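Hi everyone,

Forwarding the result from last night's run.
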Amino acid sequence: MNSNNEVMGYLPDERPKPLRLFLYALQQVIVMFPATIAVALITGFQVSTTIFASGLSTICFIMITGRKIPLYYGSSFAYLTAIGSLVAAQGTQEQIASFTATGILPTELIQYAQFGIILSGLVSILAGLLVRKFGHQSVEKLLPPTITGSISMIIGITLFGNALSDAAPSLSDTGIGASSWVWIVSLATLLSTIIFSRYLKGFLSQIPLLLGALVGCLVAAVLYFTGAGNLFRAMPAEALSASLWSWGSFAVPAFSFPKASLAAVIAIMPIAIATIPESTAHIYQID
């Protein structure tokens, strides 16, 4: 609420104007799209397939909930350690060497991981049915905000290293890590986003992440045209290599069927217990 007592934001039954709605959506893409890709790149999953699954699950969730909850379904960082453990336990030396060289898991290891992920999804569905039967009060008793918030915070803190590596990519990742100019772009993006979120008013105060990303791109463009180097990152070619068809960064997803694996069940299925409070925290935040 500003000095004129004007409420900033929208009630659940209100819809922004088309242009503002587009800018809100674009900001959401900027927030969630890199995180979704990051999980795929860290785990070695196919990027195109991950994006397809993310979009499909988001559409399904919105339709199942009657378009009442504007929740985006991206990748969960909670699965990183479990998938890494599975790869170390199930992968052969050749498969692990291939993953190290290309950054993409061999299809067989992805299929094993798929099996565990699907079963963890069944656990989440079971939890949803229990909530539907006993009411959301049961969730609030078992998972109060002090627990759900703490789990979300811990997941965020564990990604601190990934945030730093994205802010200043290594030379082997992009070829630009040896240049200190990359820090100029990262810090300009971070500081401008903080300033925008703190000092802008009205509609602009609701899109600080979008504006901050634009500032970062503008700084990178200025450095590029002044000869400091190309600091725009590109999708690794290996991330799209197994796609059915690709053109630039656009690709038809590479699909595979899951393979039964007891190790995948033991390593990945219990992660659903961690994602339940994570999802609960997201609902609280939206509320």
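Residues 171-178 have pLDDT under 50 and may be disordered.

Cheers,
N.
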